Structures are given as structure tokens and as C-alpha cells.
From TrEMBL:
<keyword id="KW-0648">Protein biosynthesis</keyword>
<dbReference type="InterPro" id="IPR008909">
    <property type="entry name" value="DALR_anticod-bd"/>
</dbReference>
<feature type="domain" description="Arginyl tRNA synthetase N-terminal">
    <location>
        <begin position="25"/>
        <end position="110"/>
    </location>
</feature>
<dbReference type="InterPro" id="IPR036695">
    <property type="entry name" value="Arg-tRNA-synth_N_sf"/>
</dbReference>
<keyword id="KW-0547">Nucleotide-binding</keyword>
<keyword id="KW-0963">Cytoplasm</keyword>
<dbReference type="InterPro" id="IPR009080">
    <property type="entry name" value="tRNAsynth_Ia_anticodon-bd"/>
</dbReference>
<feature type="short sequence motif" description="'HIGH' region">
    <location>
        <begin position="146"/>
        <end position="156"/>
    </location>
</feature>
<dbReference type="InterPro" id="IPR005148">
    <property type="entry name" value="Arg-tRNA-synth_N"/>
</dbReference>
<feature type="domain" description="DALR anticodon binding">
    <location>
        <begin position="491"/>
        <end position="605"/>
    </location>
</feature>
<dbReference type="GO" id="GO:0005737">
    <property type="term" value="C:cytoplasm"/>
</dbReference>
<dbReference type="InterPro" id="IPR014729">
    <property type="entry name" value="Rossmann-like_a/b/a_fold"/>
</dbReference>
<dbReference type="Pfam" id="PF05746">
    <property type="entry name" value="DALR_1"/>
</dbReference>
<dbReference type="GO" id="GO:0006420">
    <property type="term" value="P:arginyl-tRNA aminoacylation"/>
</dbReference>
<comment type="similarity">
    <text>Belongs to the class-I aminoacyl-tRNA synthetase family.</text>
</comment>
<dbReference type="Pfam" id="PF00750">
    <property type="entry name" value="tRNA-synt_1d"/>
</dbReference>
<dbReference type="GO" id="GO:0005524">
    <property type="term" value="F:ATP binding"/>
</dbReference>
Length: 605
């Protein structure tokens, strides 16, 4: 009976294993092996085991598998049930109940004992026992990629936040992640900027020259606007700007020095935003368009030698083998423009080649607006046809939708400009201050400032991450800083509540008694907590951080249900220790999960 199982004392646990297999995987393995012993021809078949509302897990593999052995799904499932679980089955320790339901589903429940053991094992293991499923995979992630002398806008915010979370999750699962910030730091606009500075030596655009409070981000942007206005108004200035581009490309010292100054000043501004947002990118991750300049000639030459590039109206292009325009003709990638210049297409061909041949990537992700889907399709297709890209390498455009305002229109200020990021973050922090202040009137100003910043920034990031990335998404500050609903603030707050329970428990040791029975709310929470690694594995496979958000939100709600139904500090043993263990594991899971989204989990708020 269950009484034989001793309590597990974590402090003295002799076997702390690094990787704790999830119960979902263990149940799937048990069902798969039962299938193999009943029908040897189906050995290693996938039983499709998922979390379920009807039991702990559900297997719906019978529907497809029964066909291979000419059985009806319901019969197949009934026979399979006989090989599993209590009453003659082989998995009495793992499964306490197996039921056939509907047209051939199996509802599977695990024993209280394995669940408690699982909680104890995760608490004792490093990294909560999550497997390193991406170990050894070199993964290049291209994200953020703002343009020099322009503001980061909400589209770059999406790329930055989504890309950073993917970088964190994949690295946590063991991938060798290389971050690449593909800055827009090259091309014709720089001729205009440098020429303007040359003709207006008094122009103030360095942060240091500006009044206090002016942002380092918007200063170069003002230079951009002034230069652009001159360029549009004065054709002679435009001509001098074009000459300046040639000087830049041919390495003229003074021109290159001015270019470097503009790039450095912009990068300082981007760095400030990254620091405020807690983004991993550093200047060492910058490999902007200019970085590929010396590789462009070879790209064109080699594509010509491969017979892929051809002349068309004075330009050099590669026509797509699969994509046609409205006129039915193949769509070209432009390698060299009629004026001899290189552009965005050529640079991205050099980029993918560099990442494959020099960085030796096994996976390359481009976290870029969905409106660039055709561009990436053609770049990947060309790299494949040129034999730079082999089938063994996974290359993906991790696309995301447009940011809309609360009324569903593309996000703009009243003047029609795209809204700068600093203003958005300030608005969210301001709202968070009001909401947090109302909840905690006793906080002093310094602490309120600190918490409002953490909550406001976390709220914006969570809102970006929690909607399916391919969808357009509405930026609604009031909704995102709410203490209730699927928000970053809710999750941060849930974490602080558990921390305060744990502070109340003081030094009470955590010792899990696996022989204890389980309340349904304890069971639901324990099952949720056991699925952390499964959720991360899904994010790695789908590149969809919103799955981690949904997981954390569901887990926080399971905790709330548990805490309402099950007293913790006042419970007698063994419930006391077991419930404290659930609290600890929940706090650790929320903290690590938020961390993988790039969101801070403060101790109090
Ligand atoms: N700078 C570009 C933009 O603002 C994004 C670059 C994305 N990365 C790339 N390899 N094309 O639209």
C-alpha cells in the first residue's frame, strides 16, 4: 500500500537528478509501451498524450492507430486500457485510473504518490529539472534591428521583446545562442545626414549638447528630420548628399568619421532603451548592414557563377523560382540596382551566408514584421538554390503582426508620426504607479517609483508576449497594467503573494511526504507545475512565447484555487510541509518563467 512510501527529506535527498522527466512524458511512454506489447507492429507509435480537463491526461492516439490494426477505435482503446493502470495493468505506481471515453479517448490519472514525488524532485533539481532539449544547437537570432538616426518604434519594440524572450528560452534549454542586432546603419540616408552636418556645423544633435531631459534616442532623430527636409526641398543639396554616399562607400576618412559618430550616438540611445527594458543585447551583438559591406561583391559574383543571377533592365537580379507577382511574372530579388548600388536584399543574402558559413548556425531565426514575409521567402529560397543552405539547418522568419491603438488603427500620434518608445513606456509606468499606489497606500515614494517602473515595463513586455505573435495587437495601457486578468502585473503580484506566505513560514523545513493523500486543488496545481518544461519545449518548437504566458497564467490561477481551498501555514503535518513545497515550487516556477519572458519578479509590490 501507499503507507510504505517514506517521506522525502529534500535536505538529505541522495539522488538529485538534473533532468526530471515530466509526468506527461512518463504517461506517454507508458501508453506507448502498452501499445507496443499489445500490437508489436505499433511499437514506438505516438499515443498523443495531452493535459486534459477530464482527467490528468488524455491520450487520443487510438483514433489514428486503430486503423493500422483493423480495430474500431473504441475497442482498441478498451484493450489498451486493460494493459495499463490498476487491475492487471503494468503501471500501478504511475497510473491510478484509466478510463475509455468517447469514440476512443483514454482518460489517464496518475497516483498521488508520483505527483508528490515529482514535486519533491523538481524542487531539489537544479533549474526545476527542465531538460536541455536544445543542447548543442547553435541558434542565431536576428532581432530588434532598429535604424540609426531614427527612433525605435513599436514595431521594433515587438521584435526586441519577442526576440529577447526566445533568446532566453532557447539558451535556458541549452542552445548556443548568438544574438545579432542587424542595425540599419548603411545606405543612402547617411549621405544626407553627413552632408547636412558638414553644411550645418552648429547643428546640435549630441545628447550632451541638449537640454536636460532630452532623450538620447530622439536627438539623432531630429538630425534625421532636418536633413530629410533639406533633402526634399533642395535638389542641389540632394545631389551633394548622393556624392557624399559615394565618399562614404569609398572610405573617405572625414566622411567615415562622421558616420561613426552618428552610429555611436544612436547606439547609445538604443542601449538606454535596452537597459530600461532589460534586453540582453549589447554593442557586441551589433552586426549591422555595414558589417556585410565587404561581402556583397562575392554574393553577386557567386550567384552569377551559380547561374542564378541575371541582368534585367540594367540591374542584376535573381528571379524567384516559386513566387510570382500579379502580372504572373516571377518576383526578383535585387542584387545590384541600376545605379550600381547594393540594397536590403543583397545585404540579407550576405547575412544568411555569413550565419551559415562563418557562424556555423544550425538554426537561424529572423524576428521581423510579418510585412517582410515575401522578402525572407525569397532570401531563403535563393540561399537554398545556391546550396548555401542545407536541409539540416532550420531557417525561420519569426513573423509578428502590426501594433494597433485601442481603436484598432496602426499606432500613431496625433501628428501622424509613429509613437516613440520612451513615451509609451512612460505612460505605462505612470499608470502602474497609480494602480500600485492605490493598492499599497503605505509605500514611500522611492519604493513606489521602483515598483511602478518594474510593473509598468513588465506590463508592456507581457502584453507584447502574451498575444499570438502573428496577430495584430492593440496597445492598450489601461488594460495591460491591470491587477486582474492575464497581465504581467497579475503574475508579478501572484508571485509576491506566495513569497509573503513563504516569509510567514520562516524556517519551516520543506519535507514532502509522498504517502499523503491529495486534495483536488493540490493535484491540479502539482500537475500544472510539472508541465513547466513541457511548456518551454513547446515554445522552442513553435517559437511562440505566448504559450509560456498562458502556462504561467494558468499556473497562477491554479495556485489561487489551491490557496482558497487549502490552508498552508495552519495545516497540520504532513499537509503543512507538502503545501509549503507546492508554494515554493510555484514561486520558483513563476520567477523562472517570468525571467524567461525577460520580466522581473520582485519580492514585494
Ligand atoms: N532594420 C529593419 C527595419 O527596421 C529590420 C531588419 C531585420 N533584419 C534583417 N536581417 N533584415 O525594418
Amino acid at each position: 500500500g501507499l503507507g510504505e512510501w517514506p517521506a522525502i527529506d529534500l535536505r538529505r535527498s541522495p539522488t538529485v537528478s538534473e533532468h526530471v522527466e515530466s509526468l506527461r512524458d512518463r504517461v506517454a511512454a507508458a501508453v506507448s509501451s502498452a501499445i507496443g506489447s499489445a500490437w508489436p507492429e505499433l511499437t514506438d507509435a505516438d499515443p498523443v498524450v495531452r493535459r486534459s480537463e477530464h482527467a490528468d491526461f488524455q491520450s487520443n492516439g487510438a483514433l489514428a492507430l486503430s486503423r493500422h490494426v483493423a480495430a474500431r477505435p473504441a475497442e482498441f482503446a478498451a484493450e489498451l486500457a486493460g494493459h495499463l493502470g490498476p487491475g492487471g495493468g503494468t503501471e500501478t505506481e504511475l497510473l491510478r485510473d484509466v478510463q475509455v471515453s468517447g469514440p476512443g479517448f483514454l482518460n489517464l490519472s496518475v497516483t498521488d504518490h508520483v505527483l508528490w514525488e515529482q514535486v519533491a524532485a523538481r524542487l531539489a533539481a537544479p533549474r526545476l529539472g527542465v531538460p536541455r532539449g536544445e543542447a548543442g544547437r547553435r541558434t542565431v537570432i536576428d532581432y530588434s534591428a532598429p535604424n540609426i538616426a531614427k527612433d525605435l518604434h513599436v514595431g521594433h519594440l515587438r521584435s526586441t521583446v519577442i526576440g529577447d524572450s526566445l533568446a532566453r528560452v532557447l539558451a535556458h534549454l541549452g542552445a548556443d545562442v548568438i544574438r545579432q542586432n542587424h542595425l540599419g546603419d548603411w545606405g543612402t540616408p547617411f549621405g544626407m545626414l553627413i552632408q547636412y552636418l558638414d553644411e550645418h556645423p552648429d547643428a546640435t544633435w549630441h545628447r550632451a549638447e541638449l537640454a536636460d531631459g532630452a532623450s538620447a534616442v530622439s536627438a539623432p532623430n531630429q538630425l534625421y528630420r532636418d536633413a530629410r527636409a533639406a533633402f526634399d526641398a533642395d535638389p542641389e543639396f540632394a545631389d551633394r548628399s548622393r556624392t557624399r554616399v559615394v565618399a562614404l562607400q569609398s572610405g573617405d576618412d572625414a566622411t567615415v568619421a562622421a558616420w561613426r559618430d552618428i552610429v555611436a550616438e544612436s547606439e547609445r540611445g538604443f542601449g538606454e532603451i535596452y537597459a530600461r527594458l532589460g534586453i540582453l543585447l549589447t554593442p557586441a551583438d551589433s552586426a549591422g548592414e555595414s558589417f556585410y559591406n565587404s561581402r556583397l561583391d562575392a554574393v553577386v559574383r557567386d550567384l552569377r557563377d551559380a547561374g542564378l543571377a541575371e541582368d534585367s533592365d540594367g540591374a542584376v537580379v535573381v528571379f524567384s523560382a516559386s513566387a510570382t507577382g500579379p502580372d504572373g511574372r516571377p518576383i526578383p530579388l535585387i542584387l545590384r540596382k541600376r545605379d550600381g548600388g547594393y540594397g536590403y536584399d543583397t545585404t540579407d543574402l550576405a547575412t544568411i551566408r555569413y550565419r551559415l558559413e562563418e557562424l556555423r548556425a544550425g538554426r537561424i531565426l529572423y524576428v521581423v514584421d510579418a510585412r517582410q514575409a515575401l522578402h525572407f521567402r525569397l532570401v531563403f529560397e535563393t540561399a537554398r538554390r545556391a546550396s548555401w543552405l542545407a536541409d539540416t539547418v532550420d531557417v525561420e522568419h519569426v513573423a509578428f503582426g502590426t501594433v494597433l491603438d485601442a481603436d484598432g488603427r496602426p499606432f500613431r500620434t496625433r501628428a501622424g508620426d509613429t509613437v516613440g518608445l520612451t513615451a509609451l513606456l512612460d505612460a505605462a509606468v505612470e499608470r502602474a504607479r497609480t494602480v500600485v499606489g492605490e493598492k499599497n497606500p503605505e509605500l514611500d515614494t522611492a519604493e513606489l517609483d521602483r515598483i511602478a517602473e518594474t510593473a509598468g515595463v513588465g506590463a508592456v513586455k507581457y502584453a507584447e508576449l502574451s498575444t499570438s505573435r502573428v496577430k495584430d495587437y492593440a496597445f492598450d495601457v489601461d488594460r495591460m497594467v491591470s491587477f486582474s486578468g492575464d497581465t504581467g502585473v497579475y503574475l508579478q503580484y501572484a508571485h509576491t503573494r506566495i513569497r509573503s506566505i513563504l516569509r510567514g513560514a520562516g524556517d519551516d523545513g520543506v519535507s514532502v511526504d509522498a504517502a499523503a493523500g491529495m486534495h483536488p486543488a493540490e493535484r491540479a496545481l502539482a500537475i500544472a507545475l510539472d508541465g513547466f518544461g513541457d511548456a518551454l519545449t513547446e515554445v522552442a518548437a513553435t517559437l511562440e512565447p505566448h504559450r509560456l504566458c498562458t502556462y504561467l497564467y494558468d499556473t497562477a490561477r491554479a495556485f489561487t484555487d489551491f490557496y482558497e481551498a487549502c490552508p498552508v501555514l495552519t495545516a497540520p503535518p504532513p499537509a503543512h510541509g507538502n503545501r509549503l513545497a507546492l508554494c515554493r515550487l510555484t514561486a520558483a516556477t513563476l520567477q523562472q518563467g517570468l525571467g524567461l519572458l525577460g520580466i522581473e519578479a520582485p519580492e514585494r509590490m
